[in-house]
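Changelog-adjacent note: as of this version, every example in the card shows the full chain rather than a window. The one below runs 135 residues end to end.
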Amino acid sequence: MTRRLTILAVLIVAAVSIGLYEIEARVREVSRDLASLNAELVREQQAIRVLRAEWSYLSQPSRLQTLAKHYLPLQPLAAHQYGRLAELPMRPPTLADGDLGIGRGPVMRGGVPIPGWKPHRRAGVLVATHEVDNG
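Full-length structure tokens:
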């Protein structure tokens, strides 16, 4: 009986030792991965700092003004270049809340269906109704 108990204890100690070794190996691997990720994070943060510094330099108003003068043939606007309000095109008609658009086809603005309006046929006539989302 003692011999069986001793063998069982040795097997348990061996199993625990193997398990402990496996856990230790996994912890080392995870620690290496963590160190690698931390190093990558530091590199990315340094790259972000460099990019912010470059952006700050590249977007300086004095530098942009010099480049615009050199590369863009910009001139002040002349009086005849301004338009009048009457010259603007009229806005296309839209449907009122009570108007179902009978006889007008699908409710569209600029060739694109208006969101919330659903065309369907009622007695052979294409009708657009407004669906209200109460949710």
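Structural remarks: Residues 100-106 have pLDDT under 50 and may be disordered.
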